[in-house]
Specification:
Porin, Beta-barrel_OMP_2, 62% strand, PorT family protein, 11% helix
Length: 234
């Protein structure tokens, strides 16, 4: 708390005499996994399919120059793809192995903190890039199959899988933004995942150490922003 108060005291006079904007942004996301082990991670031995998710939050657009600004923000972002395939189950009536349809829907919730550098090409268009630090809030999987299949696999319809994902993620968002009238702006970007997030256990050494699969987040985002406060007009 003392650090927050001190930071507020330090930043308040700086922001008071700075050129900045405060805004809110929300929109749909197309979330998927990338990496060489995404198929192995999905349990159905198929490549993942992107799911439509969402993101929303606040941002601060701090102008260093007329054509250059830094835009930190804080967002809630839902991520995770789905795996649609077949799995083997044992049929006790026929005493045979049969194939059953199942869909695993990954539901990951993150707090994203991007720090983007915007280069303003003109008064309307800008391109951006920068690091994004993400913190995992929740991780669940929805197992979509018949109850018979779920029982045969020992699965619940909804399961908590937070222990199987890294608590921190790092990405490189890149994209383009367009300014409309009346404080409205559009932004299209892609978050390139930089670190592996899927966590399993390696028992080869006998001690069950954590093993990270080569699986990263990859998220395409389209958002609508609205400028709540524009200090440049003061």
């Amino acid at each position: 708390m003392k650090r927050i108060i001190l930071l507020t005291i330090v930043l308040a006079p700086i922001l008071a005499f700075s050129q900045f904007r405060i805004g809110a942004r929300l929109g749909p996301s197309l979330a998927n996994f990338t990496g060489s082990e995404v198929k192995e991670w999905g349990e159905a031995n198929v490549d993942p399919t992107a799911q439509i998710k969402f993101h929303l939050g606040l941002y601060l657009d701090y102008y260093l120059l007329d054509n250059l600004s830094i835009q930190p923000g804080i967002f809630y972002s839902a991520k995770g793809p789905k795996y649609e395939g077949q799995t083997e189950i044992y049929d006790f009536q026929t005493n045979e192995i049969m194939m059953a349809d199942i869909t695993y829907k990954k539901k990951l919730g993150y707090i994203d903190i991007p720090v983007l550098v915007h280069f303003h090409i003109n008064g309307s268009i800008s391109v951006f890039a920068g690091p994004q630090f993400s913190f995992l809030l929740s991780a669940k999987v929805k197992n979509d199959a018949t109850q018979e299949v779920l029982d045969a696999l020992g699965l619940e319809e909804d399961e908590d899988v937070k222990d199987f994902y890294r608590g921190f993620d790092l990405a490189l968002p890149i994209g383009v933004a367009y300014e409309l009238a009346n404080g409205i702006n559009l932004q299209l970007g892609y978050d390139i995942g930089l670190i592996d997030i899927a966590k399993g256990y390696d028992y080869d050494g006998g001690d069950g150490n954590d093993k990270y699969y080569k699986v990263k987040n990859g998220v395409l985002k389209l958002s609508v922003g609205y400028v709540i406060k524009d200090n440049r007009d003061d």
